[in-house]
């Protein structure tokens, strides 16, 4: 039985990222889910709110961060689980490849996809659909990218606890829906019951939405915005580390 390579190797991580990207290139349905569906959903919402002036501006920035997080969570959790159930993961870890190399490779690969996804969604929202943003659109892009990376990290983490692709999808109501309900999208968090407000303060999606709203309403980078992106980035890094610690070679 082989042991995990203790040191994280950039070369091995990049090789893993290249392999994942090559696999994605031959899977047009997954590429469409990652790149096109968020754009279509934001476009649909733009015209759903067409008769309500200012409504799309109020929720569009928040959704620009939420959609990438959800799609990256789904695709990453299922893709990682598929590699484990097919035996690919076990064969890879029999090589001089540590769990950290594997997780870093996946994060790099899906991070590259997240960049493309965030660019498309942000460009569509701001320059085509007319999302009214007071701050810099590049700050919107930054938050959307961090949200997508958080979704990737969460997907890698929960895949360790699923025995099938169906179970991986079942984690979405447990991991994503509570954050979606408590992030402030439907009602301001300070108007929630104190217990729910406290819970929302512990959930990273709340800071993702707050960060988007900071860009929406402030011309300058605020202290709250810096706090929000640091929390989202820190949560993504923490969950990636947990994903490396809980990664299993195969599903029993």
Notes on the protein architecture:
This protein has 252 residues and is mostly helical. The protein has helices at 10-25, 28-35, 37-48, 55-85, 88-93, 99-128, 137-158, 165-175, 177-182, 194-200, 204-217, 223-246. Helix 3 (37-48) packs parallel to helix 6, helix 4 runs antiparallel to helix 6 and helix 11 (204-217) packs antiparallel against helix 12. It is globular and about 55 Å long. The chain starts with 9 loop residues before the first helix and ends in a 6-residue tail after the last helix.
- What proportion of the residues form beta strands (DSSP E)? under 5%
Helical amount: over 70%
**What is the mean pLDDT?**
84
Radius of gyration: 18 Å
Q: N-to-C SSE series?
A: HHHHHHHHHHHH
Morphology call: globular
Q: Quick one: how many beta strands?
A: 0
**Number of helical segments with 4 or more residues:** 12
> Major sheet, described briefly?
none
Secondary structural class: mainly alpha
Q: What's the end-to-end separation, in Å? A: 17 Å
The poorly predicted ranges are 1-6
Quick structural summary:
It is built from twelve helices and no strands. It has helices spanning 10-25, 28-35, 37-48, 55-85, 88-93, 99-128, 137-158, 165-175, 177-182, 194-200, 204-217, 223-246. Residues 1-6 have low confidence and may be disordered.
